[in-house]
Amino acid sequence: MSSSASSKNQIITINFATTINEKLTPSTFPQWRAQFEALLIGYDLIDFVTGKLQCLAIDAEQSATSKAANSRWIRQDKLILHALLASTSTTITPFLASCKTSHEAWTKLTCLYAGKSRTRAMQLKEDLTLNNRGNQTVTEFLQTIKLIADELAIIDHPVSDDDLTLYILNGLGPEYREIVAPIRARENSHRFKELHDMLVGHESYLRRLDQQATQNLVATAHFSQ
């Protein structure tokens, strides 16, 4: 994005190639939208695509100030529209060809892909429900859960701390029941890092118990010989 001044009336050009790391495809809408929204908010242009900032009408006197403001809005909006078009894949661009404003293009993209985001959210929530630790270490299991939760947050379906804790506890397995009970009984929510540290500590404790049991078996075997 280039600029020669920081004034309110500046026209900002968006260089898509250096600001968005991948083009929009039917499967990347949540990530793409998160990047584009952050970019527009950072440069105070988000009101164009949301429709909050409408084209300024030229006053009855046809004043130079009014005409300039109208022209400035149109030029800025067209640059945003161009950036939207440039950041979409060839399979999506045709759907936006008839759009005259960035708000119209943004709204059309949201209508096209928000439903798919909801479907994806349902799939991810099911993954959280069914995910079990199995043979994974606690750290590996928690990373899997966190990746799913992070993707849900990206598509506007954030998982609360309590729900995330519940998904984790349900997938740990019976060997963790001793630590699960006090975690469930706590009144305050657990932060992910706090929960991670507690479970990793318990994993180390269980590992030590296994090692001691193995050593005792070996010692008993030697003694019986």
What does this protein look like?
This is Retrovirus-related Pol polyprotein from transposon RE1. Pfam families: Retrotran_gag_2. With 225 residues, the protein is mainly α. The protein folds into two domains: 16-113, no CATH class; 131-224. It is built from ten helices and no strands. α4 (64-86) packs across α6 (102-130) and α6 (102-130) runs antiparallel to α7 (138-154). The longest helix has 33 residues, at 192-224. The termini are far apart.
Classification by helices and strands:
mainly alpha
> The biggest beta sheet, please?
none
Tell me the domain tally: 2
Low-confidence stretches: 1-7
Q: What is the average per-residue confidence, as pLDDT, rounded to a whole number? A: 86
Beta-strand segment tally: 0
Helix count equals: 10
Question: Between the first and last Cα atoms, what is the distance in angstroms?
Answer: 79 Å
Name the shape in a single word.
Answer: elongated
Succession of helices and strands: HHHHHHHHHH
Instruction: Report the sheet-strand fraction.
Output: under 5%
Radius of gyration: 27 Å
User: Could you estimate the helical fraction of the residues in percent?
Assistant: 55-70%
Q: What is shown here, in short?
A:
The chain is mostly helical and 225 residues long.
Give structural attributes.
0% strand; mainly alpha; single chain; 225 residues; disordered N terminus; 66% helix; elongated
Describe the secondary-structure layout.
Blueprint: H1 16-19, H2 29-42, H3 46-50, H4 64-86, H5 93-96, H6 102-130, H7 138-154, H8 161-171, H9 177-185, H10 192-224
